[in-house]
Each structure stands twice: as C-alpha cells, then as structure tokens.
Amino acid sequence: MEIRNLQTFVHICDNGSFSKTAENLGYTQSTVSSHIQQLENELGVPLFNRNGKRFSLSIKGKELLYYARNILAQVNEATSVVTDASTPCGELRIGVIETISTYLLPPILEKYIIANQNVKVYIKTATTLEIMEMLNKGEIDIMITLDDPLYTPNWVCAFRKTTPIRYLCSATHPFAKRYDISLQEFAKENILMTEKLCNYRNSFETLCNLHHVIPNSNLEIGCTQTIIDYTKKGLGVTILPEFTVTPFIENKTLSVINVRDSEIEMEIQLIYRNDIWLSPAAKEFISEFQI
C-alpha cells in the first residue's frame, strides 16, 4: 500500500472532489483516479459509491479513512523526528467558526504564511459541533471556536480569551438614545438572528427561556457581515460578538444596547488533541497565536 495513494485518498475525502485534489496535489485528474483504482484493486473493495459525477464514501472507504489518517500521521511524525527538521513544513489543518475566520484569523494567517512558506494551510469553516467532530476524527489539527469553556480529557486549550456578546441597533434606532432596556423590550423588536446552531444565539435563547421571554424574529441570516449591514440600515436589532462590530461602534453607525441583567460572554478557544502527534507546523501556529 503506497503512501502517496493514501494521501490522495485522504485529500479526496477532505476536499470532496477529485479535480480539487488533483489541483492541490499537483497531479492530473487521471493520476488521482489511478491512485484510487490502485488502492481499490489492492484491497479488493470499492472505496467510493459512484453515481455519475457524484460520489460518497463506501462503508469500507470509511473504515480505511480512519486507518489512513493514522498512518499518514505516523509517517509525518517519523519524518519530523528522524530528520529533526527545524523549519515547519507539510500541512496544517485548522477548523474554525465563521465569525473568527472572517474577523480575527486573516492577520494571524498572513503573518504565519509569510514566516512558514513550506506549510500548506487548509481552513475548514463550520459550526462548533462540526469542528469538534472533525478534531475527534483527526480531520483537523487545531480547532478555533467561540463558545462556553470546552473541556474534554484528551483536549488541550492552548489559548483562551473572554469576549462579550453585544446587543446592537442602528444609530438611528430609538434604543440608541436609551441608557438601558429590559430583555422583554429587546425581544419585541425584530431580531436579526444567526443560524440555529450558532453558540451565542443558543445562549441568548436560553436566557430568554429563563426569563420566560419569546424573542421576535422573522429574519435568519447565515453571514455575520450581512447581519451587520442590515442592522445598520435599521432592519432590526441583533446580538453579535464585540470583535465583529468594534469599528462600527467606534464610527457610531451601530450602537450598543445595555439590556438589563442579560449579559452574555463567551470564550475564544484554540484547542488541539494531546493524544496524537502535534506537527512542528501546528506547534508554530499555536505559539504565535494571539488575539
């Protein structure tokens, strides 16, 4: 079983595309297909269920993926230890939620990529639950999320920072002229909500339940920047992490609303697993991670 064939197989599983895998690995698409055919011939089972141009992992393919990731991790570890490479190289896979990916990660990544040009970085944006699953399955090396403190025996939180979740309205909204309001008053406004699996939305809805308040919302938006733009235009009020809206608060296009006895805080957390090998590329990223 050749390492390059396993690498190709894992890349296809991660990318969900033969053509994208060929592009990322510098192969032709026929070479990628040949690698998979060699694996299937060697193992005597199909690794993918194919339906025209669509495909999904077969049962045996899912079983192989687990072992392939472990084999490649061992190969990378052996290469690093034996060569004693001082310069990080190879791949770094980061799972991150949308708000951090958009508003906090770009300057950190820019600095990292410039300093570590032999590292290829893969960013996977998803919900916290999804990137937690990716981390547990070994599909990513590091996860960065915004949530209540997360604790699991085989996880290490290498960075933790508390950030407030702000209640917001446009500068022209009547709430902008009030010192404070009640949660009941806020909940009667049209609340521009993030998607249902968003952590700070869940915290807000839990808070409403505790106070027997039913939030009013007729608009759910999956993009943070769109929520900001719609709030500035007066389409409703919203709740967002402070780091996403600081410039708009400073230039007074958004106003922070003080909602009495309804503070929400969450923690930016960078987490990795302590039961698998951590590559020099990952160690370098963790050591330089600051927000």
Q: How would you describe what is shown here?
A:
This protein has helices at residues 3-15, 18-25, 29-43, 59-83, 98-103, 105-115, 128-137, 183-188, 199-210, 224-232, 242-250, 280-288, and strands at residues 48-51, 54-57, 90-96, 119-125, 142-147, 155-170, 191-193, 219-220, 237-241, 254-257, 264-273. Strands 3, 4, 5, 6, 7, 8, 9, 10 and 11 form a 9-stranded mixed sheet that branches. Strands 1-2 form a two-stranded antiparallel sheet. With 291 residues, it is of the alpha/beta class. α1 crosses α2 (18-25), α1 (3-15) packs across α4 and α2 (18-25) packs across α3 (29-43). The model has no long low-confidence stretch (mean pLDDT 91). The longest helix is centred in the N-terminal third of the chain and has 25 residues, at 59-83.
Low-pLDDT ranges:
none
Category from helices, strands and their pairing: alpha/beta
Give the rounded overall mean pLDDT: 91
| Rg calculated over all Cα atoms | 23 Å
Extended strand count: 11
- Strand residue percentage: 15-25%
Helix proportion: 40-55%
Number of helices: 12
Biggest β-sheet strands, sense, barrel = 9 strands, mixed
Task: Give the H and E element order.
Answer: HHHEEHEHHEHEEHEHEHEHEEH
- What coarse outline follows from CA principal-axis ratios? elongated
How many angstroms separate the termini? 43 Å
Short description:
With 291 residues, the protein is an alpha/beta fold.
